[in-house]
Design a protein that fits this description.
The chain is an alpha+beta fold and 128 residues long. The chain contains five helices and seven strands; from the N terminus they run αββαβααββαββ.
Amino acid sequence: MFRINVNEQMADIFEETDFIFAATNPDVAFAATGPMPPKWATSTWSRSMASPKPLATTERSPIPANLTGNPAVSIPAGLVDGLPVGLQVIGRHHEEQLLLDLARIVERERPWPLVAPSVVEGGLRRHV
């Protein structure tokens, strides 16, 4: 019943809009070398899905698109404290091409470096 309700709500939203814009990750990025942040949430999503464990903040954002099967893409949106931030864009069912066209336009207008920026720390160069 929960999944049916979410699908119906998403369909209602897409009767009025082409895209949903949301954070790809509701938290700041963690270092590529780890460790993953120990933040866990007891969200209504994890309780309502009878999840065996609370969901990490990094696991919650893609749930609506994953649950409903709507296509989604993450677009680099900028940096916060030198770390990348992504913008998740969710599209209508069977409208993948429109979503990919939008991502391509963003990529052309705001190209993202192909190599991660590096910093020199203690004489060592590392990628962030």
